[in-house]
Predict the 3D structure of the following.
Amino acid sequence: MLWSRKPVSIGLIGCGAMGEIHAHAIARHGGARLRCVFDPDRARAADLVRKHHGVRLAESLENVLADRDVEAVLIATPHNLHKPQTLAALQAGKHVLVEKPTALNHADACEMTEAARRYGLRLLVGQVMRFWPNVARAREAIAAGRIGEVRQVIRRRMMRQKDAGRAWAYDRKQAGGWIIQGNACHEVDAVLYMLDGQVARVEALATRNNPKWNDIDELAVLLALESGAICSLSQSLNCWPDGIDTVIIGTDATITLSEVRRGFAIDTDTTILGASDGFGEQIHDFVAAVREGTPSRIDAGNILETMRTLDRISEQLAEPEPCTQRAVHALA
Ligand SMILES: NC(=O)c1ccc[n+]([C@@H]2O[C@H](COP(=O)([O-])OP(=O)(O)OC[C@H]3O[C@@H](n4cnc5c(N)ncnc54)[C@H](O)[C@@H]3O)[C@@H](O)[C@H]2O)c1
């Protein structure tokens, strides 16, 4: 992406799957420069340094934060580290883009948002679906009144994920529950963003099936929004084929979204929007926020309703018993 201002110099914390994707997104953006990377898994960090010319291998988070050339940090680490690492970075005077979820709960997300405000720094959260063309277009259409008043949203995220490929994802202390903090975090956020919604009431049911997850892997959530719209969100880690689809029923028309075909339709008028570069757009928002002070759709304050709703889903599943424990059936 073309950019005439001085590039924003970024320190990357966490060089796993997402760290690598973000490093490439930074490299593609003319307004950002990857200055240094840190990961306690030195082989991973060294691998990124090898792939990106001129990047320094830092030996600790403190070392990244002490680097005067680093203006901003991108945090792509396990969920329980998001809060302490974000607060440390803000305290060191760095702007932050932290991966989703903002934190393990709403109270921590509020504390982080307040800290950024107090220090006069930007804190953005990697809720990348807000940049997905279907999601962005649905939000615009709804805001423009093209489907009238929204009555109901039905969204399904179907995946056949046998394992996470990351040991920390199975540990509730680190991940906070993969299907809620890892996945529902995207789904709830996408729906609330499309509808610009506030949640009045939450109901949730879940079951555990694949023992590997040490957690729920089937989730059904009902949301009643302040606007009067109702939403049902279903998520499965045991479904074949993969896909995310959505129906948004309005008084005048219905929107259907398919993330498999990347199709956007109002009633029968379908547009295929093509693949998005959500991570690139996210970096662009971050660069514009840091350099120009531009408001962002992923400012941490805009994500608080999502975090509050995730807390309410977790509370529902905790009482009176954690969730239904099914007889284990092998998925291998
Ligand atoms: N936006 C998306 O679509 C999307 C997709 C997958 C994951 N994520 C999010 O990205 C984040 C990272 O997930 P991932 O898939 O890259 O996991 P990962 O396990 O592949 O990478 C995490 C990395 O963090 C490193 N790490 C652990 N402790 C650290 C510390 N103290 N300091 C610095 N690094 C440390 C690990 O060594 C590992 O390399 C999570 O918040 C996850 O939810 C987002």
Confidence is low (pLDDT under 50) at residues 327-332. The pocket of nicotinamide-adenine-dinucleotide is lined by residues 13-19, 38-41, 44, 61, 76-79, 81, 99-100, 126, 128, 166, 182 (CB under 6 Å). DSSP finds ten helices and 15 strands in the chain. The two ends are 43 Å apart (CA to CA).
